[in-house]
Prior knowledge:
There is one protein chain. With 548 residues, this protein is an alpha+beta fold. It is built from 19 helices and 14 strands. The protein has helices spanning 71-75, 97-111, 174-181, 194-205, 211-226, 230-247, 271-276, 324-338, 352-361, 371-381, 386-398, 402-415, 419-426, 428-431, 447-455, 464-486, 495-504, 520-523, 539-547; strands spanning 79-80, 83-84, 93-94, 115-120, 124-129, 137-142, 149-155, 252-257, 263-269, 283-290, 298-305, 311-319, 345-348, 366-369. It has a seven-stranded mixed β-sheet, sandwiched between helices. The chain has a five-stranded antiparallel β-sheet with strand order 3-7-6-5-4. Helix 8 packs across helix 9. The two termini are 52 Å apart.
Amino acid sequence: MEMPCxxxxxxVSPTPIPSFVDxxxxxxxxxxxxxxxxxxxxxxxxxxxxxxxxxxxxxxxDVKGSGSGDQTCVEEGIYGEGGxxxxxxxxxxxxxKKELMTCLSITAMTEKFQYKVFKSKPSFVVVRxxxxxxxxxxxxKKLVESEYWMVTKYEKKHTCPTDFKHVRRRQATSWxxxxxxKRKLINPGRVYRPRDVMDDMKHKFGVDISYSVAxxxxxxxxDNLRLDxxxxxxxxxxxxxxxxxxxxxxSVVNLEASDGNKFQYLFIAFAASIHGFSYCRPVISIxxxxxxxxxxxxxxxxxxxxxxxxxxxxxxxVGDSENDASWSxxxxxxxxxxxxxxxxxxxxxxxxxxxxxxxxxxxxxFHGICMYHLLNNLKTKFRNKTKELEQHYIRTAKxxxxxxxxxxxxxxxxxxxxxxxxxxxxxxxxWTRSHVPSRRYNIMTTNISESLNAVLVKxxxxxITAFVNEIRLLCQKWFHExxxxxxGCTTMMSKDVETNRCKERGHNRATSQNPIALHPADEAECxxxxxxxxxxxxxxxQQSMQQL
Length: 548
Protein backbone atom coordinates (compact mmCIF):
# COMPACT_ATOMS: atom_id res chain seq x y z
CA MET A 1 0.00 0.00 0.00
CA GLU A 2 1.43 3.32 -1.04
CA MET A 3 1.37 6.27 1.30
CA PRO A 4 -0.13 9.66 0.28
CA CYS A 5 1.81 12.28 -1.60
CA UNK A 6 4.22 14.63 0.19
CA UNK A 7 2.53 16.99 2.63
CA UNK A 8 4.67 20.02 1.76
CA UNK A 9 3.33 20.57 -1.74
CA UNK A 10 0.02 20.20 -3.47
CA UNK A 11 1.60 20.16 -6.91
CA VAL A 12 3.92 17.17 -6.55
CA SER A 13 2.85 13.86 -8.02
CA PRO A 14 2.17 11.08 -5.48
CA THR A 15 5.44 9.58 -4.31
CA PRO A 16 5.38 5.98 -3.03
CA ILE A 17 7.33 4.92 0.00
CA PRO A 18 10.64 3.51 -1.27
CA SER A 19 11.16 -0.22 -1.06
CA PHE A 20 12.92 -1.47 2.01
CA VAL A 21 16.50 -2.57 1.85
CA ASP A 22 17.12 -6.11 2.97
CA UNK A 23 17.19 -6.46 6.73
CA UNK A 24 20.63 -7.35 8.02
CA UNK A 25 21.32 -11.11 8.39
CA UNK A 26 19.13 -12.95 10.90
CA UNK A 27 17.05 -9.84 11.54
CA UNK A 28 13.73 -11.51 10.84
CA UNK A 29 14.34 -15.22 11.19
CA UNK A 30 11.35 -17.13 12.41
CA UNK A 31 8.91 -14.26 12.12
CA UNK A 32 7.06 -13.68 8.88
CA UNK A 33 4.80 -10.96 10.21
CA UNK A 34 7.46 -8.72 11.65
CA UNK A 35 10.80 -8.54 13.34
CA UNK A 36 11.02 -9.16 17.05
CA UNK A 37 13.37 -6.47 18.13
CA UNK A 38 14.80 -5.44 21.48
CA UNK A 39 15.35 -1.83 22.42
CA UNK A 40 17.63 0.14 24.68
CA UNK A 41 14.96 0.71 27.34
CA UNK A 42 16.01 -2.27 29.43
CA UNK A 43 15.26 -0.63 32.77
CA UNK A 44 12.59 -2.63 34.61
CA UNK A 45 10.18 -0.74 36.78
CA UNK A 46 9.44 -3.24 39.56
CA UNK A 47 10.42 -1.93 41.93
CA UNK A 48 12.63 0.80 40.49
CA UNK A 49 15.23 0.58 43.27
CA UNK A 50 16.16 -2.98 42.29
CA UNK A 51 16.98 -2.03 38.71
CA UNK A 52 20.57 -1.75 37.43
CA UNK A 53 21.61 1.60 35.94
CA UNK A 54 20.43 2.23 32.42
CA UNK A 55 23.07 1.69 29.72
CA UNK A 56 24.24 4.95 28.24
CA UNK A 57 25.79 3.47 25.09
CA UNK A 58 23.33 3.86 22.27
CA UNK A 59 23.38 3.55 18.52
CA UNK A 60 23.52 7.11 17.26
CA UNK A 61 26.96 6.41 15.74
CA ASP A 62 25.41 3.71 13.56
CA VAL A 63 22.06 5.24 12.71
CA LYS A 64 22.57 8.95 12.15
CA GLY A 65 19.80 11.44 11.94
CA SER A 66 18.10 11.07 15.30
CA GLY A 67 16.89 14.66 15.14
CA SER A 68 18.95 15.58 18.18
CA GLY A 69 21.62 17.02 15.94
CA ASP A 70 24.93 15.68 14.70
CA GLN A 71 27.61 17.37 16.78
CA THR A 72 30.14 17.42 13.96
CA CYS A 73 27.76 19.35 11.75
CA VAL A 74 27.05 21.80 14.52
CA GLU A 75 30.70 22.40 15.26
CA GLU A 76 31.31 23.17 11.58
CA GLY A 77 28.69 25.91 11.64
CA ILE A 78 30.14 29.29 10.83
CA TYR A 79 27.68 31.21 12.92
CA GLY A 80 26.69 30.47 16.48
CA GLU A 81 24.96 32.23 19.31
CA GLY A 82 28.05 34.31 19.96
CA GLY A 83 28.41 35.66 16.42
CA UNK A 84 30.94 35.03 13.67
CA UNK A 85 33.42 32.30 14.52
CA UNK A 86 36.52 34.11 13.26
CA UNK A 87 37.04 36.93 10.76
CA UNK A 88 38.50 36.95 7.28
CA UNK A 89 42.25 37.49 7.45
CA UNK A 90 45.31 36.55 5.42
CA UNK A 91 46.66 33.01 5.83
CA UNK A 92 43.49 31.85 7.53
CA UNK A 93 42.61 28.26 6.56
CA UNK A 94 39.09 26.96 5.93
CA UNK A 95 38.03 23.33 5.79
CA UNK A 96 36.19 23.71 2.49
CA LYS A 97 35.30 26.23 -0.17
CA LYS A 98 31.72 26.29 1.10
CA GLU A 99 32.97 27.27 4.55
CA LEU A 100 35.07 30.05 3.02
CA MET A 101 32.17 31.44 0.98
CA THR A 102 29.81 31.20 3.94
CA CYS A 103 32.21 33.18 6.10
CA LEU A 104 32.52 35.78 3.34
CA SER A 105 28.74 36.08 3.10
CA ILE A 106 28.31 36.49 6.85
CA THR A 107 31.08 39.10 6.86
CA ALA A 108 29.32 40.98 4.06
CA MET A 109 25.99 40.90 5.90
CA THR A 110 27.59 42.02 9.17
CA GLU A 111 29.54 44.89 7.61
CA LYS A 112 26.58 45.79 5.36
CA PHE A 113 28.04 45.50 1.89
CA GLN A 114 27.79 43.15 -1.07
CA TYR A 115 30.44 41.30 -3.02
CA LYS A 116 30.63 39.48 -6.33
CA VAL A 117 32.77 36.57 -7.47
CA PHE A 118 35.30 38.02 -9.90
CA LYS A 119 37.08 34.74 -10.74
CA SER A 120 36.43 31.20 -9.63
CA LYS A 121 38.55 28.19 -10.57
CA PRO A 122 38.88 24.74 -8.97
CA SER A 123 42.18 25.89 -7.45
CA PHE A 124 41.47 29.54 -6.51
CA VAL A 125 38.75 32.17 -6.12
CA VAL A 126 38.73 35.99 -6.19
CA VAL A 127 35.87 38.10 -4.82
CA ARG A 128 35.42 41.88 -4.93
CA UNK A 129 32.99 44.51 -3.67
CA UNK A 130 30.14 45.11 -6.11
CA UNK A 131 31.09 48.80 -6.36
CA UNK A 132 33.53 49.17 -9.23
CA UNK A 133 35.74 51.77 -7.50
CA UNK A 134 36.01 49.89 -4.18
CA UNK A 135 39.37 48.30 -3.32
CA UNK A 136 37.94 45.56 -1.03
CA UNK A 137 38.86 42.10 -2.31
CA UNK A 138 39.74 38.60 -1.15
CA UNK A 139 41.83 35.97 -2.91
CA UNK A 140 42.02 32.38 -1.69
CA LYS A 141 43.54 29.20 -3.06
CA LYS A 142 43.12 25.50 -2.48
CA LEU A 143 45.96 23.79 -0.71
CA VAL A 144 47.76 21.04 -2.58
CA GLU A 145 46.38 17.50 -2.11
CA SER A 146 43.69 18.55 0.37
CA GLU A 147 40.23 20.07 0.57
CA TYR A 148 41.45 23.01 2.66
CA TRP A 149 41.45 26.59 1.38
CA MET A 150 43.68 29.45 2.53
CA VAL A 151 43.23 33.20 2.18
CA THR A 152 46.33 34.50 0.37
CA LYS A 153 45.37 38.18 -0.06
CA TYR A 154 42.85 40.36 1.79
CA GLU A 155 42.22 44.06 1.14
CA LYS A 156 40.03 44.95 4.11
CA LYS A 157 39.47 48.68 3.50
CA HIS A 158 36.35 49.80 1.60
CA THR A 159 36.62 52.84 -0.70
CA CYS A 160 33.02 52.73 -1.95
CA PRO A 161 30.58 55.54 -0.96
CA THR A 162 29.05 55.20 2.50
CA ASP A 163 25.53 55.49 1.12
CA PHE A 164 26.08 52.44 -1.07
CA LYS A 165 24.03 50.17 1.15
CA HIS A 166 21.13 47.81 0.54
CA VAL A 167 18.79 46.35 3.11
CA ARG A 168 18.20 43.27 0.96
CA ARG A 169 21.54 41.66 0.12
CA ARG A 170 22.19 38.85 -2.31
CA GLN A 171 24.63 37.18 0.09
CA ALA A 172 21.69 36.12 2.30
CA THR A 173 21.01 32.93 0.36
CA SER A 174 19.30 29.82 1.69
CA TRP A 175 22.57 27.94 2.27
CA UNK A 176 23.95 30.88 4.24
CA UNK A 177 20.75 31.02 6.28
CA UNK A 178 21.19 27.28 6.87
CA UNK A 179 24.54 27.86 8.53
CA UNK A 180 23.17 30.75 10.58
CA UNK A 181 20.26 28.80 12.09
CA LYS A 182 21.78 25.35 12.42
CA ARG A 183 22.51 25.57 16.12
CA LYS A 184 18.96 26.62 16.88
CA LEU A 185 17.61 23.34 15.50
CA ILE A 186 19.59 20.90 17.64
CA ASN A 187 16.59 20.28 19.88
CA PRO A 188 13.87 18.61 17.77
CA GLY A 189 11.20 19.83 20.16
CA ARG A 190 11.87 23.50 19.48
CA VAL A 191 9.33 25.40 17.42
CA TYR A 192 11.33 27.48 14.94
CA ARG A 193 9.18 28.85 12.16
CA PRO A 194 10.36 30.54 8.94
CA ARG A 195 9.01 33.80 10.35
CA ASP A 196 11.38 33.34 13.32
CA VAL A 197 14.27 32.84 10.88
CA MET A 198 13.36 36.09 9.12
CA ASP A 199 13.24 37.97 12.44
CA ASP A 200 16.61 36.58 13.57
CA MET A 201 18.32 37.51 10.31
CA LYS A 202 16.87 41.01 10.56
CA HIS A 203 17.91 41.39 14.21
CA LYS A 204 21.46 40.02 13.88
CA PHE A 205 22.44 41.25 10.41
CA GLY A 206 19.87 43.89 9.49
CA VAL A 207 19.00 41.78 6.43
CA ASP A 208 15.51 41.32 5.01
CA ILE A 209 15.03 37.87 3.51
CA SER A 210 11.95 36.41 1.88
CA TYR A 211 9.77 33.73 3.45
CA SER A 212 10.85 31.18 0.82
CA VAL A 213 14.56 31.76 1.55
CA ALA A 214 13.92 31.38 5.27
CA UNK A 215 11.93 28.18 4.72
CA UNK A 216 14.53 26.63 2.39
CA UNK A 217 17.36 27.53 4.77
CA UNK A 218 15.55 25.98 7.73
CA UNK A 219 14.71 22.80 5.79
CA UNK A 220 18.32 22.46 4.57
CA UNK A 221 19.52 22.82 8.16
CA UNK A 222 17.06 20.12 9.26
CA ASP A 223 18.27 17.76 6.51
CA ASN A 224 21.91 18.50 7.32
CA LEU A 225 21.43 17.71 10.99
CA ARG A 226 19.46 14.55 10.31
CA LEU A 227 21.79 13.36 7.56
CA ASP A 228 19.03 11.34 5.93
CA UNK A 229 16.09 12.12 3.70
CA UNK A 230 12.63 10.69 4.37
CA UNK A 231 13.24 8.12 1.63
CA UNK A 232 16.61 7.10 3.05
CA UNK A 233 15.12 6.94 6.54
CA UNK A 234 12.73 4.15 5.50
CA UNK A 235 15.70 2.20 4.17
CA UNK A 236 17.56 2.68 7.45
CA UNK A 237 14.65 1.43 9.54
CA UNK A 238 15.18 -2.37 9.19
CA UNK A 239 18.87 -2.02 10.03
CA UNK A 240 18.05 0.18 13.00
CA UNK A 241 15.64 -2.44 14.35
CA UNK A 242 18.17 -5.19 13.80
CA UNK A 243 20.75 -3.32 15.88
CA UNK A 244 18.20 -2.92 18.65
CA UNK A 245 17.62 -6.66 18.58
CA UNK A 246 21.32 -7.36 19.02
CA UNK A 247 21.83 -4.97 21.93
CA UNK A 248 18.60 -4.98 23.95
CA UNK A 249 16.78 -8.21 24.69
CA UNK A 250 13.22 -8.02 25.93
CA SER A 251 11.59 -5.38 23.75
CA VAL A 252 9.29 -6.25 20.86
CA VAL A 253 9.01 -4.54 17.50
CA ASN A 254 6.92 -5.68 14.54
CA LEU A 255 7.63 -4.23 11.11
CA GLU A 256 5.14 -5.14 8.42
CA ALA A 257 5.25 -4.35 4.72
CA SER A 258 2.57 -4.62 2.05
CA ASP A 259 2.64 -6.95 -0.94
CA GLY A 260 4.60 -4.37 -2.89
CA ASN A 261 7.29 -4.26 -0.17
CA LYS A 262 6.09 -0.85 0.95
CA PHE A 263 5.90 0.28 4.57
CA GLN A 264 2.55 -0.52 6.17
CA TYR A 265 2.72 -0.94 9.97
CA LEU A 266 5.22 -0.57 12.79
CA PHE A 267 4.75 -1.62 16.43
CA ILE A 268 7.13 -0.91 19.33
CA ALA A 269 6.92 -2.03 22.96
CA PHE A 270 9.99 -1.49 25.13
CA ALA A 271 11.18 -4.06 27.63
CA ALA A 272 10.66 -1.72 30.57
CA SER A 273 7.04 -1.19 29.53
CA ILE A 274 6.37 -4.90 29.12
CA HIS A 275 7.89 -5.75 32.49
CA GLY A 276 6.36 -2.80 34.34
CA PHE A 277 2.76 -3.13 33.17
CA SER A 278 2.09 -5.94 35.63
CA TYR A 279 2.71 -3.43 38.47
CA CYS A 280 0.33 -0.79 37.05
CA ARG A 281 -3.42 -0.48 37.20
CA PRO A 282 -4.97 -2.42 34.29
CA VAL A 283 -6.41 0.74 32.73
CA ILE A 284 -4.99 1.59 29.29
CA SER A 285 -5.57 4.88 27.49
CA ILE A 286 -5.29 4.64 23.70
CA UNK A 287 -5.19 7.44 21.15
CA UNK A 288 -3.92 8.32 17.68
CA UNK A 289 -2.40 11.48 16.25
CA UNK A 290 -1.18 12.47 12.80
CA UNK A 291 2.47 12.47 11.80
CA UNK A 292 3.73 15.60 10.05
CA UNK A 293 6.59 14.36 7.91
CA UNK A 294 6.75 14.09 4.14
CA UNK A 295 4.76 10.85 4.00
CA UNK A 296 2.46 11.73 6.95
CA UNK A 297 0.72 8.69 8.54
CA UNK A 298 -0.69 8.14 12.04
CA UNK A 299 0.95 7.46 15.41
CA UNK A 300 -0.90 5.06 17.73
CA UNK A 301 -0.17 5.09 21.47
CA UNK A 302 -1.12 2.97 24.46
CA UNK A 303 -0.41 4.55 27.87
CA UNK A 304 -1.22 3.92 31.52
CA UNK A 305 -0.41 5.34 34.97
CA UNK A 306 2.45 4.03 37.10
CA UNK A 307 2.24 3.79 40.90
CA UNK A 308 3.35 7.40 41.25
CA UNK A 309 0.54 8.73 39.00
CA UNK A 310 3.00 9.43 36.17
CA UNK A 311 2.71 8.67 32.46
CA UNK A 312 3.86 5.12 31.71
CA UNK A 313 4.17 4.48 27.92
CA UNK A 314 3.25 0.94 26.94
CA UNK A 315 3.36 0.75 23.15
CA UNK A 316 3.68 2.85 20.01
CA UNK A 317 2.47 2.13 16.50
CA VAL A 318 2.68 3.74 13.07
CA GLY A 319 0.16 3.17 10.30
CA ASP A 320 -1.29 4.74 7.18
CA SER A 321 -4.49 6.14 8.71
CA GLU A 322 -6.88 5.76 11.63
CA ASN A 323 -9.18 3.01 10.33
CA ASP A 324 -10.55 -0.37 11.43
CA ALA A 325 -7.66 -2.37 9.96
CA SER A 326 -4.86 -0.29 11.52
CA TRP A 327 -6.50 -0.13 14.96
CA SER A 328 -7.18 -3.87 14.93
CA UNK A 329 -3.57 -4.53 13.94
CA UNK A 330 -2.19 -2.27 16.68
CA UNK A 331 -4.46 -3.60 19.44
CA UNK A 332 -3.74 -7.14 18.30
CA UNK A 333 -0.03 -6.55 18.91
CA UNK A 334 -0.81 -4.97 22.30
CA UNK A 335 -2.78 -8.08 23.23
CA UNK A 336 -0.02 -10.46 22.12
CA UNK A 337 2.64 -8.56 24.08
CA UNK A 338 0.82 -7.59 27.28
CA UNK A 339 -1.64 -10.46 27.48
CA UNK A 340 -5.26 -10.45 28.59
CA UNK A 341 -6.25 -9.22 32.04
CA UNK A 342 -9.80 -10.06 33.20
CA UNK A 343 -10.01 -6.63 34.86
CA UNK A 344 -8.67 -4.72 31.83
CA UNK A 345 -10.24 -1.34 31.08
CA UNK A 346 -9.57 0.57 27.85
CA UNK A 347 -10.27 4.32 27.71
CA UNK A 348 -10.44 6.24 24.41
CA UNK A 349 -12.41 8.83 22.50
CA UNK A 350 -15.55 8.01 20.49
CA UNK A 351 -13.79 7.12 17.24
CA UNK A 352 -15.79 4.40 15.51
CA UNK A 353 -12.71 2.44 14.43
CA UNK A 354 -11.47 2.23 18.03
CA UNK A 355 -14.82 0.87 19.19
CA UNK A 356 -14.84 -1.76 16.42
CA UNK A 357 -11.25 -2.80 17.10
CA UNK A 358 -11.76 -3.09 20.87
CA UNK A 359 -14.83 -5.28 20.38
CA UNK A 360 -12.86 -7.48 17.99
CA UNK A 361 -9.56 -7.79 19.87
CA UNK A 362 -10.60 -7.29 23.53
CA UNK A 363 -14.23 -8.48 23.71
CA UNK A 364 -13.90 -9.27 27.43
CA UNK A 365 -12.44 -5.85 28.37
CA PHE A 366 -14.55 -2.90 29.42
CA HIS A 367 -14.32 0.01 26.98
CA GLY A 368 -14.86 3.43 28.55
CA ILE A 369 -15.11 6.80 26.84
CA CYS A 370 -13.07 9.86 27.71
CA MET A 371 -15.28 12.15 29.73
CA TYR A 372 -14.02 15.34 28.09
CA HIS A 373 -14.14 14.02 24.52
CA LEU A 374 -17.78 13.15 25.10
CA LEU A 375 -18.37 16.61 26.58
CA ASN A 376 -16.91 18.26 23.48
CA ASN A 377 -19.19 16.17 21.28
CA LEU A 378 -22.15 17.22 23.40
CA LYS A 379 -21.18 20.88 23.05
CA THR A 380 -21.13 20.45 19.29
CA LYS A 381 -24.55 18.81 19.25
CA PHE A 382 -26.21 21.12 21.80
CA ARG A 383 -24.64 24.47 20.97
CA ASN A 384 -27.26 26.61 22.68
CA LYS A 385 -26.84 25.00 26.11
CA THR A 386 -23.06 24.71 26.50
CA LYS A 387 -22.86 26.54 29.86
CA GLU A 388 -25.59 24.47 31.56
CA LEU A 389 -24.33 21.32 29.87
CA GLU A 390 -20.77 21.59 31.17
CA GLN A 391 -21.85 22.60 34.65
CA HIS A 392 -24.13 19.59 35.25
CA TYR A 393 -22.40 17.00 33.05
CA ILE A 394 -19.06 16.94 34.90
CA ARG A 395 -20.72 16.54 38.32
CA THR A 396 -22.92 13.76 36.95
CA ALA A 397 -19.98 11.88 35.44
CA LYS A 398 -17.74 12.10 38.49
CA UNK A 399 -20.15 11.13 41.25
CA UNK A 400 -19.66 7.70 42.83
CA UNK A 401 -23.12 7.25 44.38
CA UNK A 402 -26.05 5.97 42.36
CA UNK A 403 -28.55 8.02 44.32
CA UNK A 404 -26.57 11.20 43.71
CA UNK A 405 -26.25 10.26 40.04
CA UNK A 406 -30.01 10.03 39.54
CA UNK A 407 -30.51 13.48 41.07
CA UNK A 408 -27.74 15.07 39.01
CA UNK A 409 -28.70 13.28 35.80
CA UNK A 410 -32.31 14.48 36.17
CA UNK A 411 -31.03 18.05 36.61
CA UNK A 412 -28.83 17.70 33.51
CA UNK A 413 -31.65 16.34 31.37
CA UNK A 414 -34.01 19.08 32.55
CA UNK A 415 -31.51 21.82 31.70
CA UNK A 416 -30.59 20.40 28.27
CA UNK A 417 -33.53 18.84 26.42
CA UNK A 418 -32.55 15.91 24.22
CA UNK A 419 -29.32 15.08 26.03
CA UNK A 420 -30.89 12.14 27.89
CA UNK A 421 -31.52 10.12 24.75
CA UNK A 422 -28.02 10.86 23.43
CA UNK A 423 -26.21 9.83 26.62
CA UNK A 424 -28.30 6.72 27.11
CA UNK A 425 -27.52 5.70 23.52
CA UNK A 426 -23.82 6.10 24.28
CA UNK A 427 -24.21 4.04 27.45
CA UNK A 428 -24.23 5.33 31.01
CA UNK A 429 -21.50 2.87 31.98
CA UNK A 430 -19.17 4.36 29.34
CA TRP A 431 -18.77 7.78 30.94
CA THR A 432 -19.94 7.65 34.59
CA ARG A 433 -18.19 6.40 37.70
CA SER A 434 -21.39 5.21 39.31
CA HIS A 435 -22.31 2.77 36.52
CA VAL A 436 -18.94 1.44 35.43
CA PRO A 437 -18.89 -2.37 35.88
CA SER A 438 -15.10 -2.57 36.20
CA ARG A 439 -12.42 -0.80 38.21
CA ARG A 440 -11.76 2.35 36.23
CA TYR A 441 -10.31 4.12 39.29
CA ASN A 442 -9.94 7.85 38.75
CA ILE A 443 -8.94 7.58 35.08
CA MET A 444 -11.95 9.22 33.44
CA THR A 445 -10.11 10.89 30.54
CA THR A 446 -7.37 10.26 27.98
CA ASN A 447 -5.27 13.14 29.30
CA ILE A 448 -2.18 10.94 29.64
CA SER A 449 -2.39 10.09 25.94
CA GLU A 450 -2.93 13.71 24.99
CA SER A 451 0.04 14.73 27.16
CA LEU A 452 2.27 12.20 25.41
CA ASN A 453 1.13 13.50 22.02
CA ALA A 454 1.98 17.03 23.13
CA VAL A 455 5.51 15.97 24.10
CA LEU A 456 5.98 14.44 20.63
CA VAL A 457 4.43 17.32 18.69
CA LYS A 458 7.67 18.44 17.00
CA UNK A 459 9.24 14.98 16.93
CA UNK A 460 6.39 13.88 14.67
CA UNK A 461 7.94 15.99 11.90
CA UNK A 462 11.10 13.84 11.75
CA UNK A 463 11.80 11.03 9.25
CA ILE A 464 10.66 7.60 10.42
CA THR A 465 13.97 6.26 11.78
CA ALA A 466 14.80 9.50 13.55
CA PHE A 467 11.26 9.59 14.91
CA VAL A 468 11.57 6.08 16.36
CA ASN A 469 14.92 6.93 17.89
CA GLU A 470 13.51 10.06 19.58
CA ILE A 471 10.73 7.95 21.11
CA ARG A 472 13.37 5.57 22.45
CA LEU A 473 15.39 8.42 23.91
CA LEU A 474 12.31 9.91 25.56
CA CYS A 475 11.22 6.62 27.14
CA GLN A 476 14.74 5.80 28.23
CA LYS A 477 15.01 9.20 29.91
CA TRP A 478 11.68 8.80 31.70
CA PHE A 479 12.43 5.29 32.94
CA HIS A 480 15.86 6.34 34.15
CA GLU A 481 14.39 9.28 36.08
CA UNK A 482 11.75 7.03 37.65
CA UNK A 483 14.39 4.51 38.71
CA UNK A 484 16.49 7.28 40.26
CA UNK A 485 13.52 8.67 42.21
CA UNK A 486 12.45 5.22 43.35
CA UNK A 487 15.92 4.55 44.72
CA GLY A 488 15.27 7.24 47.33
CA CYS A 489 11.99 5.74 48.57
CA THR A 490 11.99 4.75 52.25
CA THR A 491 8.90 2.50 52.04
CA MET A 492 7.33 0.11 49.59
CA MET A 493 4.91 2.85 48.57
CA SER A 494 5.52 5.30 45.76
CA LYS A 495 6.55 8.83 46.67
CA ASP A 496 3.15 10.24 45.76
CA VAL A 497 1.22 7.79 47.93
CA GLU A 498 3.76 8.01 50.74
CA THR A 499 3.47 11.81 50.82
CA ASN A 500 -0.31 11.68 50.95
CA ARG A 501 -0.29 9.10 53.72
CA CYS A 502 2.12 11.18 55.77
CA LYS A 503 -0.10 14.22 55.35
CA GLU A 504 -3.15 12.26 56.45
CA ARG A 505 -1.41 11.02 59.57
CA GLY A 506 0.08 14.42 60.38
CA HIS A 507 3.65 13.27 59.79
CA ASN A 508 6.35 15.44 58.29
CA ARG A 509 7.95 13.35 55.62
CA ALA A 510 11.10 15.47 55.63
CA THR A 511 11.89 14.39 59.21
CA SER A 512 11.27 10.67 58.61
CA GLN A 513 14.52 8.80 59.16
CA ASN A 514 13.44 5.17 59.31
CA PRO A 515 11.26 3.17 56.94
CA ILE A 516 7.60 3.15 57.93
CA ALA A 517 6.34 -0.25 59.02
CA LEU A 518 3.41 -1.17 56.83
CA HIS A 519 0.06 -1.81 58.46
CA PRO A 520 -2.06 -4.45 56.67
CA ALA A 521 -4.47 -1.68 55.69
CA ASP A 522 -1.63 0.18 53.99
CA GLU A 523 -0.61 -2.68 51.75
CA ALA A 524 -3.60 -2.10 49.51
CA GLU A 525 -2.27 1.36 48.71
CA CYS A 526 1.19 0.22 47.64
CA UNK A 527 -0.16 -0.04 44.09
CA UNK A 528 -0.57 3.74 43.98
CA UNK A 529 -4.33 3.82 44.45
CA UNK A 530 -5.38 7.06 46.10
CA UNK A 531 -9.14 7.21 45.72
CA UNK A 532 -11.65 8.66 48.16
CA UNK A 533 -13.51 6.02 50.13
CA UNK A 534 -17.18 5.40 49.36
CA UNK A 535 -19.87 2.91 50.18
CA UNK A 536 -20.51 0.34 47.44
CA UNK A 537 -23.74 1.25 45.71
CA UNK A 538 -23.38 -0.54 42.38
CA UNK A 539 -24.16 -4.30 42.30
CA UNK A 540 -20.68 -5.08 40.95
CA UNK A 541 -19.15 -3.14 43.83
CA GLN A 542 -21.21 -5.02 46.41
CA GLN A 543 -20.25 -8.33 44.86
CA SER A 544 -16.57 -7.36 44.90
CA MET A 545 -16.79 -6.36 48.55
CA GLN A 546 -18.41 -9.70 49.42
CA GLN A 547 -15.62 -11.55 47.65
CA LEU A 548 -13.06 -9.55 49.61
